[in-house]
Amino acid sequence: MKKSVNDKVFDLVIITISVLILFVVAYPLYYVIIASFSKPEAVLAGKLTFLPVGFNVKSYQMVLQETKIWRGYSNTILYTVLGTMINLVLTTLCAYPLSRKDMPCRTLLTFLVSFTMLFGGGMIPVYLVVKNIGITDTIWAMVIPNALNTYNMLVMKNYFQSSIPGELQEAAAIDGCSHFQILMKVVLPLSRSIIAVITLFYAVQHWNAFFNAIIYLRKESLYPLQIVLREILLQNSLEAVGGDLTGMYEKVMQGETMKYALIIVASVPILIFYPFIQKHFTKGIMVGAVKG
């Protein structure tokens, strides 16, 4: 079909607005990248626009030479993989029965679960529980307290209700499948989109875990990447304050670009992981959150 003038103008306006939004969203990340490769003096002077000023990789050399970085990476990967697996299992086992129309007291149970989104026990009671069950200063302190996210569970529940035909589950039951078999052989194979979305949500949550590590961990060998990066920045600042004027100036200058390098080091794995599930993301989040 040949487009009218009004349609062409409308398309032009939409494209222009989309490009502006893309620029607003993408430029801060791009600025972090070019700042991490620029001279500290240029960053502090505000000379950066679209290209690095005085190409410099010293910040990355200093960051990657830190053994703490690699230990923090290994810890964070462990917390992310283990925690996400626990999250997915518990979220699925909670969402599936609540999505079944034949579930007794389904409405009441859904309300009780949803109620926790509005009111929680508080930081101190949760800390006392974690301490009393003896998992402080262990890897379990990073995965057990956040084993189930209510919002993610409700998104998955709504997806099961709206996207998995009840007749298909009934047919499987007639063929002799148990509820567990229906879940594993019927529901989950048809729920790849929502599983990809929930996996991304949980993985990002664990990768960026910061507050729980401060509360529950005291052993440096268990620190996740985010805490390690924080320690490096603090150490660099303290060394700058404690040195002579020349050394202090160099430390302050190098710390300015180092913080951008640390952001890139911490963000790259998630940026690499996201494109593999991007095709599932929009479908999963829209169907799971809006319908039902």
Helix- and strand-based class? mainly alpha
What is the number of helices? 14
Question: Please, what is the CATH homologous superfamily?
Answer: MetI-like
- Overall body shape: flat
Query: What is the fold-level CATH name, i.e. the topology?
Result: MetI-like fold
Which regions are unreliable across 5 or more consecutive residues at pLDDT < 50? Answer: 288-292
CATH class: Mainly Alpha
Helix content: over 70%
Tally of DSSP β-strands? 0
Biggest beta sheet summary: none
> In CATH terms, what is the architecture?
Orthogonal Bundle
Span between termini: 36 Å
Nearest-integer average pLDDT: 80
Sketch the topology as an H/E string, one letter per element.
HHHHHHHHHHHHHH
**What is the chains' assembly state?**
single chain
Strand content: under 5%
Number of domains: 1
| Rg estimate, integer Å | 24 Å
Detailed description of the structure:
- This protein is an all-alpha fold and 292 residues long.
- The chain has a single domain, classed as Orthogonal Bundle (MetI-like fold).
- It is 72% helix and 0% strand.
- The chain contains 14 helices and no strands.
- It has helices at residues 5-36, 40-44, 58-64, 67-99, 106-115, 123-132, 150-163, 166-174, 179-187, 192-207, 211-216, 225-242, 245-273, 278-290.
- Helix 7 packs across helix 14 (278-290) and helix 10 packs across helix 14 (278-290).
- The longest helix is centred in the N-terminal third of the chain and has 33 residues, at 67-99.
- The two termini are 36 Å apart.
- 25% of the residues are buried.
